[in-house]
Amino acid sequence: MLSFLNRYREPLLVGALIIVPLISFLSRGGRGREPNFLDRSVLALSSPLQSGLTLVFSGVTSTMGGYVALRGAHDEAGQCRAQLAEAQAELNTLTEAKAENTRLREVLGFVDQQSGPTVMARVIGLNATPQFQSFRINRGEEHGVRVGMPVVTPKGVVGQVVRSVGGSADVMVMLDPQSRIGALVQRSRVRGTVVGAGDGQKMLLDFVRREDDIVDGDVVVTAGTDGIFPRGLKVGTVKGVSRPTVGLFLIGQLEPAVDLGRVEEVLVLPVTELSAMRAKEGSR
Amino acid sequence: MKGALMTGLALVLLSVEAVLVRTFGFEVTRIDVTVALIVFLAVRSTTIEGALSAFAIGYLVDVFTGRPSGLFPALGVLVFLLARAAAQLLDGKSRLGFALFSAGATVGHSLLAFLLMWLTSKSADGRVLSLTAVPAQALLTGGAAALLFPLLVKIEPGEREPRGGLA
């Protein structure tokens, strides 16, 4: 036995390295597992790294912007270059601060409308694999962020928390093919399910009957029936409806209300009463 | 030790990539930088060391997805073995060869990921993810591999004779 193991050590080890995770994947699908000690350690190591890199990258782009502005000032007014550069740099900072201020005011206005406690978070990095559309935020378990919580901006729905550890959490955005959101068309009150198309750009409106009233430009909002998202949050706008000759349902394409690739600050909302009730029932 | 270095490098590169994608947005096709590292291991390391490193790199990718499911560690080792077998026929030791090899491996990696995700998708209607971005992804990964080549050669300058598969 020992000689057999010794003789086929390499193929056995390599085979195990493929088969064990593959069985785990095939048994769970794309749902993923709860973070273990090793996952938490890797995340604890990478989250500060990502936060630091985000700061450095923002600094570099800001400096480059300042440099471009400085060159323009140099061409236009050579002898006032130094003063203009200083003024320009200050203006850059103020413009950025103003933009941030506007965003935060919108967020605060939105927070006032929410009933439960909310957590505001910054996006520190986007998931680097094309198969899963998610991003990481700088708030986690220690700030009250829990798996299943809805994530939004004042402009509309972003996604849902799929993992929360110490100081960071991962959010599956609604573009992900595994994302499902109960929704309704604001104008005609037609109900459907919003599903990520998987191309990183659009979503599909599923389970809507062929004869239902949906046209291009219709606004789609959350229905509040999924037990995750509160009712009435903007999900997106209909951009293309096709009614196949066979089948019960039409195919509607949606453009997200939020530019999910460039979102900077988000709000993590408390779970709705319905999902809290479900969680309670599940723990019994 | 070199395996640990490659895994550490993968962690840094994934973090950098996450920040870059944040800046340029989701619509930007991602560079599959870990595939380039796995191809490099396939061409230059021993079977056990390379397979373990490919597994570790895949595990990192899995953790970075937010929903670790075991898909990427298995794919990492699988791509490592396929690239190792292909190294018998193709030249992956020169900079250009390595870039082309990495681009090809990216296509293989994406197709395998698509197939496995399609198999486990409840709807199974081909909507699990789009394959339209794969050519651009392969091209970008090839470019990134060419840029990374000098750094990788410093970590692992030795060249092994390709023996293919598990040999």
Keywords:
heterodimer, A: 284 residues, alpha+beta, Thrombin, subunit H, B: 167 residues, mainly alpha, Arp2/3 complex 21 kDa subunit ARPC3
Q: Taking all residues together, what is the mean pLDDT of chain B? A: 82
Describe the largest sheet of chain A. Answer: 6 strands, antiparallel, barrel
Helix/strand/pairing class of chain A, anyone? alpha+beta
What is the CATH architecture annotation of chain B?
A: Orthogonal Bundle
Which second-level CATH architecture of the domain at 119-283 in chain A applies?
Answer: Beta Barrel
State the order of secondary-structure elements of chain A, H for helix, E for strand: HHHHEEEEEEEEEEEEH
Shape of chain A: globular
Q: In the residues of chain B, how many domains can be counted?
A: 1
Amino-to-carboxy terminus distance of chain A: 47 Å
Count of discrete alpha- or pi-helical segments spanning 4 or more residues of chain A: 5
Estimate the strand proportion of chain B: under 5%
Intertermini distance of chain B: 22 Å
Give the number of DSSP strands of chain A.
12
Q: Kindly provide the name of the CATH class of the domain at 119-283 in chain A.
A: Mainly Beta
Task: Specify the helix fraction band of chain B.
Answer: over 70%
Would you mind describing this structure in some detail?
The complex is a heterodimer of chains A (284) and B (167). Chain A is built from five helices and twelve strands. Chain A is α+β, with helices and mostly antiparallel strands. Chain A has a domain at 119-283: Thrombin, subunit H. In chain A, the strands form two sheets. A six-stranded antiparallel beta barrel of chain A has the order 1-2-5-4-3-12. A six-stranded antiparallel beta barrel of chain A has the order 6-7-8-11-10-9. The model of chain A has no long low-confidence stretch (mean pLDDT 80). Chain B has a single domain (2-155), classed as Arp2/3 complex 21 kDa subunit ARPC3 (Orthogonal Bundle). Chain B has 167 residues and is mostly helical. Chain B is globular, with a radius of gyration of 15 Å. Chain B has helices at residues 2-24, 33-44, 47-64, 71-86, 95-120, 134-155.
